[in-house]
Write the structure tokens for this entry.
Amino acid sequence: MSTKFITRRTTLKGIGTGLAAGGLAMTGFPAIVKAQSETVKIGFLTALTGLETILGETQLNCFKLAVEEINAAGGIDGREVEFLVEDDQTTTKGTIDKARKLAFQDEVDAIIGMIASLEHVAARSVTTPAKKLLMYTTYYEGEVCERYFAATGQVPNQQIVPTTKWLTENVGKSVYILGSDYIWPRRSAEAIKNAFEANGGKVLGAEFFPFGTQDFGPAFDRIRAAKPDLVWMMVAGADGVTVLKQYRSFGLEPQLVGNAWDEIYSFAHPDLAEGTISNQAYFMGIDTPENKRFIEAYRARFGADKPINAIGEAAYDATYLYKLAVEKAGSTDVEKVIPALSQVEFAAPQGRVNMSAINNHMRCNSILARAKADGMWETIENFGQIDPDIPGCSL
Amino acid sequence: MSAQDQISAAARATARDATFARPKFVLIAAGWLVLASLPFWAGAYNIATIRDVLLFGLFALSLDFLWGRTGILSFGHAAFFGLGAYGMAIVTIKLGLDPASASLLGLLGGTGLAMLAALVVGYFLIFSGVRGTYLTIVTLALTVIAQHIAIGWSEVTGGDSGLIGVPPLTFELFGWRYALSDPSQFYWFVLLLASIILLVLWRVLSGRYGHILTAIEDNELRARTIGHHTDRHLLTVFVVSAGIAGLAGAIYATGTGFVAPDMIGLMLSTEVIMWVAVGGRGTLVGPFIGAFVVWWLQQKISSIDTKLWPMFIGLFFIAMVFLFPNGVMSLGERGRQLRARLWRRA
């Protein structure tokens, strides 16, 4: 995968900018020209190096596409959108440094992006006290309730709950959970357990593995003994490939379900992904004019056969929702934009979307799909938009 | 007082005068004044980031005290920094104490936790004669273990997403409460603390104790033969060094307001080694300069090219090692060396 990113051209470009940086450093780095008030300034902060690089790349492309489209159509209320891209390195220190830079030095109007939980935690430690709008575009545990934080990805009640209902009605009532050992799989496992029990189902076992686990055999033996109808996987990163390969070679029968599988994964490993079930707010296979146009524009800009996933599409939606909210508010003043966010709606590639006023989370769509041999996902059932539920949140 | 003592006292006095007259010290003093006046002319962004750089500099200083003076390279220093940060977070968030006493207890708890860990690990390693590369490898394991605990023990540490809600440093003396929530005051507090620790270490190391440590680094067996308890000295340095790292970590956590597993991890352990190496090992001021230079380069280059910047940072380190193996602090000497070489040739 990494070879795709460091081509000769990007290397040359990189060396060029490196030299330029050296040159600038020598001459004392001219202050970045202050943004004229005619432009709207958006900071894009995500993981472009580190663990989540492949996801960050797609997310950035979708954001760029949205900005370019908005500018081509006359900007936000006639104001051009200017954007700055920063790499948070998937570390807290990197995220804090860059969030500070965007908020205080570049004085952006909003910050969009981020993938891992630690990134939004670190970024919020800067943006919330500074009263900057932060838009997070990844499905996550869904536990943040803050005025200056908005999310356009799915939370458990939009993803796990409808999936479980369908599975218990159509596939089976017993499930075995395998996940990586960190917060997202552990919290999701709790949500899965609650959802299964609410539907008369049962969790037969849940196991969490440290990163870098090589042998899942013992767990598979236990699965074979437990005889579940379903195996729900939340094994992240490279381990996710290892676990699937071994699952296939063990010849286990239970239907595979996951809530992090998307096109980025299935395009890279179509043979492993085939037949698995996943739920996302967006799949490339959605048959709407908006989605067709979106995919065409993306491919024309970034290359054919490039996968787009739900995290990327959520970044695209976030950018448009921000545009519409600024237009509705008639200003980039964050205190006016935030209430306006829940008053606008956007015909997104995933379908119609808008924000909930009580928790600043998006009414995402919920699409259950099965991976095909070519890496695309075939919709099993589209549950449509679901109200996000953040327990105890009322903004 | 014998004649010899008088001579050496006089020699030391002239040496000290010479030390203060050296341009490097004038530069350092000027740099300190610039730092002290920062809140008057710099914006919120610079105050907050320079404050963090100072804290990382203090962290680097703690490693330099160990590595620069005893030759023991610790690959586990982030474990101590992280223990300080986590100690602070757990005391202030989980125990439900009054904010004023919680801050102070957090500082003590975090620093104490780091020192305790260093004492236990150091005792078994140093007193059983583990030295050099082996010691480095064990410290490497220490940081890996610490990170695993930080991620795995989620009821206490918050796991992967850490603990949120560390309050700003608050002190209460005789009913007079003082919260360092104002950025400038917090900044000055950090600057003052870092300066005091730097001065104390410099004072201690330029005296007899510094010579003992140098002797241990040169040849521990010989130092032991002439009667120094080398194990005890090394353990003391190790524990004090861990304490400073823990203190820096605890204060850092109050600045960010949260802790996360990568504040305790291997990545930070290697970064701190880079800061010391770039600044100049054994120079004490160097680690601060190293932390600043590396931070500044990372900030600038990563904003210019978000994808390839790690490559440039890597090239920079390689270039540093070739051109200035003793770090930024040796720029002057290195220049003189090169000039002398040219002079001889001419």
In short: Chain B is about 75% helix and 5% strand. Chain B has two domains: 1-41, 42-265.
